[in-house]
Amino acid sequence: MNAKKVIIDCDPGIDDALALMLALCSPELEVLGITVVSGNVPAKKGVANAKKVLHWMNRPDIPVYLGEELPLVRPYVDAMDTHGEDGLGESNYPEITNQIMDESGVEFLTHTLKNAAQTNDPVSIIALGPLTNLAKVIQEDPQSLAGLGELISMGGSYQSHGNCSPVAEYNYWCDPHAAEIVYRAFEDLPVCQDKKIHMVGLDVTRKIVLTPNILEYMCYVNPQIGERIRKITRFYFDFHWKQEGVIGCVINDPLAVAYFVDRTLCSGIDACTRIATDGLCIGQSVVDGFDFWHGHKNSHVLTKTSPLAFMQMFFDRVLGVHPKVSCSVLEQIMKGDSQ
Fold this sequence. Notes:
Layout: E1 4-10, H1 14-24, E2 29-36, H2 43-56, E3 64-66, H3 80-83, H4 105-119, E4 123-127, H5 132-140, E5 148-154, H6 170-174, H7 176-188, E6 197-200, H8 202-205, E7 209-210, H9 212-221, H10 223-244, E8 249-250, H11 253-261, E9 266-275, E10 285-288, E11 299-305, H12 307-319, H13 323-338
Parallel strand pairs: 1-2, 1-4, 2-3, 4-5, 5-6, 6-11
Antiparallel strand pairs: 7-8, 9-10, 9-11
Helix pairs in contact: 1-2, 1-11, 4-5, 5-7, 9-10, 12-13
């Protein structure tokens, strides 16, 4: 099996950490590097958190690059009220001191994509945060996207409500101008005409809930990793209960990785999507699901997913429990949690 080459562009972040763990445990992926953008936490803090995850997973070989530290236009608003002051749920794991890359995240993305185009060996991007880094790549060298395989973006929403305004999801709300540049590129640039952004939005990620019972099962089957997940998600649990009345926490980002690995986990529609960049609805992903605009369908918008199949994958890869073993237990837990 030839692993797909991928760059993970992220803003770690509790759920980013879980997504990185899943990616690093997936043999289908060859992670070339991690680029960090300001989002959940400032980019420098995100770099530190990415290095912590690489340390946990014994993958110090993967380089981490500091990307854009501010949105393109609007003032930066972090999400540390959700993720904690350290970005990992106030877990206060020690810093990992190793090599700092001289190249910026945008430079790494650009030259990697250009090389991919020249060698006809495409590189995909899984974007788990605001799209500022990718927007800068497009502004500086749009032709580099010829080397892009696929773009998976955890962001936006279609028929679900927002999580930082009535209509906007945080990643696109944090830097709506960047998101609009990226979506417009997939509508207008010739090198992107045969590609679509795979929008993994709140319509599907809200269905991926780490409940107390699932967390207990994690700790039972793999105490070392389970307890680490418990430690970084405790703050997240508290936030979700206070903010949304959810017993557990929604873990958005791992679904984007899981979907990239296995497309049967989700389904959706092709549509023209644009991002609102001002006004009351700033950051909203406006999905033309009924083709009013007759525009180029620049996105594949996910609308359905299987929480059980996702959890089986996560338990298999990250916790080492075969799906045949976890299936019946997870079914019982999830049935009980839903009552």
